[in-house]
Amino acid sequence: MRCRKCKGKAVLDVPRHHTAFCKACLTEFVCAQVERAISEERMFTKADRVLVAVSGGKDSLSLLDILGKLGYQADAFYVDLGIGEYSRQSKAKVERYTSARGISLHVHELKEDEGAGINDLADLVHRPTCSVCGTLKRYHFNRTAVEKGYSVLATGHNLDDEAARLLGNVLHWQTEYLEKQGPTLPDSVEGFAKKVKPLYRLAEREIAAYAVVNKIDYIVEECPNAQGAKMLLYKDILNRLESESPGTKQAFYWGFLTRQKTDEQARPSMAEHDRAVLRPCVTCGQPTTSEICSYCKLMARAQKNGPTPVGS
Ligand code: FES
Ligand code: ZN
Known about the structure:
The chain is α/β, with parallel strands linked by helices and 312 residues long. It has 13 helices and ten strands. The strands form three sheets. A six-stranded mixed beta sheet has the order 5-4-3-6-8-7, sandwiched between helices.
């Protein structure tokens, strides 16, 4: 297999674009796709300070790497969920990557600040671990970005993640989630950082290949709590469709984004809607649509149900 651009030895075929790339051209392709996502979706500029939420996995570390290559000001934020060996290893990968490149790293420790790891917290509130994890991460991502003066919070969600999430939302007609599934969510009110997903144009295997080619040392294992999650099933189904018909994932998610943009012109923007309904949480001051934000509700429930000393 030969690289379509330079005719060198190809390391990855990209059937959805009818092409294949060698190491150097793959890196160029990946960086160009991210640059295009940033400019087309008006995510940020070189003047913005960007906080990248990193897990130690290939996507978030690659995102940090690509933003550095492209000359953006990007720092890292890691939430230590306290999941035994998995958290220990993933945190070590993040620390090694950032310290080798002189990137600032902010860390939030659940065991220290919330008084328990994610599994114990989920038990205390009798909710699925992944849903508690989502609430906590969203809260700390935003709070840390705002408090530390970052205007943008970037996550490593890729095309596979977004297509799988879209499939889940469509299957259950969760229209309220569909509205918020774009790669750029504006900083609609004070206290909210802009949220962006600069990898939405790239498939998981393209990013995995980028990480290997660029010698990024990432944690290969998935979070142990993710085993059997619905998202993995949706990804598997989409992968089967993709292998039969390359370009399906891209057509599905990008097609949705095009339609979403047309729809937005016909109704009030989400930013306007949010501005009307959001107010500061009476407990912590973070923006919320109800009196108390979902993080504070969750922590109050954990405190009520268990002996865990819960901070905030
Ligand atoms: Fe959230 Fe595993 S429980 S990443
Ligand atoms: Zn709150």
